[in-house]
Hints:
heterodimer, A: 114 residues, mainly beta, 54% strand, B: 115 residues, seven-stranded mixed β-sheet
Amino acid sequence: AQTVTQSQPEMSVQEAETVTLSCTYDTSESDYYLFWYKQPPSRQMILVIRQEAYKQQNATENRFSVNFQKAAKSFSLKISDSQLGDAAMYFCAYRWESGNQFYFGTGTSLTVIP
Amino acid sequence: DAMVIQNPRYQVTQFGKPVTLSCSQTLNHNVMYWYQQKSSQAPKLLFHYYDKDFNNEADTPDNFQSRRPNTSFCFLDIRSPGLGDTAMYLCATSRQGDRLNTEAFFGQGTRLTVV
């Protein structure tokens, strides 16, 4: 069974600083995809960044980057130059390459302090 | 450009009174999902359709049903809502078989309150 674990229920960061959100997962598959989603309060869940397991290079999207450690089954999200608009719930998610289901972690609530 | 549209955004229903939530998509994705998300919790997958094939999660209560009459639309039917069914219901879509576009796209959700 696939499980996704986010061990930080809440995190806070000063505006313009850097914060890292942790995620680990458990799978016996070799081909899969990992995602970070952002869900602002009462708003739509949107994709922040994704990583293909077959790629060794860590994904980067502007201020967002990941540290993907396949052997350790770890997938952390780094947010640089944090902005007030980054405040949201962040969910780590997993999808097996040949499957359809997305499995989500329990989320990390990020507060950005002005 | 709304791509996954859920209606209504807010729904209040009485205990035991059937309710239907709807979802439509303009992405032509072959997979559609229904998730239940309770306050401050992770989205929980209820079921999904891959084209016309229905896939129910093992722990989804029988009270929850779904229909997908065509590629664009999917419905969630709750036959006899209980107070514990109060939650946000999220519809999502994805494209199976496309290694360049692997993510799920979500609608804005329907917040259901059972009274």
